[in-house]
Write a structure and sequence with these properties.
This protein is an alpha+beta fold. The chain has a domain at about 5-45. The protein contains 2 helices and 2 strands; from the N terminus they run ααββ. It is flat.
Length: about 80
């Protein structure tokens, strides 16, 4: 599967970044392999993890995006200085 196909249904940039970070975690665990034939070319992802075993999926990051303006009314949720 290509990374482009993996993010083709992403609603926004945050979803793309979250999926990329998840792939990096899987790579770190040795569960996926990346292949990119040419620089800046299509990134292919291959599952190399075990066929059996428990896969843990959580909804930790499935929350609505925060608005641009924080609770204090300051853009980005910052503090007035």
């Amino acid at each position: 599967m290509s990374f482009r196909a993996l993010v083709s249904d992403a609603a926004n940039t945050l979803v793309v970044v979250a999926r990329f970070l998840a792939l990096l975690e899987l790579f770190k665990e040795g569960s996926v392999r990346f292949e990119q034939v040419i620089a800046l070319g299509e990134l292919q992802i291959t599952w190399v993890g075990s066929v059996e075993g428990e896969i843990r999926v959580s909804d930790e990051f499935d929350r609505p995006a925060m608005s641009e303006t924080g609770e204090d009314g300051v853009e980005g949720g910052g503090v007035n200085v």
